[in-house]
Design goal:
Elements lengths: L1 H21 L15 H26 L8 H24 L7 H19 L9 H25 L8
Helix pairs in contact: 1-2, 1-5, 2-3, 3-4, 4-5
């Protein structure tokens, strides 16, 4: 059972990596501040997303090895680098200037990533009976990121993300 659940989670983690790679924008420029261009925002986003994408891919590779004998300590150890990269990604989105038309949606993107980080942090408490609920919650939260990314991509004139 746990093995099946974790394999579904790997697919979702891969989708999250794709979404992060293809999103492009950010957050907390003061209301009247001049933001960077759409093209510059796309490049800036990609620079921020690369480390998160690499960590997501590594997490996916590690999680694909999980089975019924994998401990919660191993889940946590495998998720720890990804959590750190997502936190850094969030900080980069918050610290950079983005086109004014994208700022609200970038804030939404940052907000949507927090529940995914929380899901990863909760791996220490996942049990065999609770694993399906964890996966459902994780998938729902990843869908929230997917929606936020779509809005940001639209704001920046980027094509839709590929699943």
């Amino acid at each position: 059972m746990r093995q099946w659940v974790m394999k579904r989670t790997i697919i979702t983690a891969g989708v999250l990596a794709t979404l992060l790679t293809s999103a492009a924008t950010s957050v907390a420029s003061p209301a009247g501040a001049k933001g960077i261009t759409k093209k510059a925002a796309g490049k800036q986003y990609q620079a921020l997303a690369n480390a998160a994408n690499a960590a997501t891919n590594k997490f996916g590779a590690e999680a694909s090895k999980w089975n019924n004998s994998t401990t919660n300590a191993q889940f946590v150890a495998d998720a720890k680098p990804l959590i750190a990269k997502f936190n850094k990604f969030d900080a980069g989105l918050i610290d950079d200037r983005w086109p004014p038309a994208a700022r609200a949606d970038v804030r939404s993107l940052v907000t949507s990533i927090a529940p995914v980080i929380g899901d990863l942090q909760s791996l220490s408490t996942v049990t065999l009976p609770s694993a399906p609920t964890w996966v459902t919650t994780f998938e729902r939260d990843v869908d929230g990121v997917k929606t936020a990314v779509a809005h940001v991509r639209h704001d920046l004139g980027l094509p839709p993300a590929k699943d």
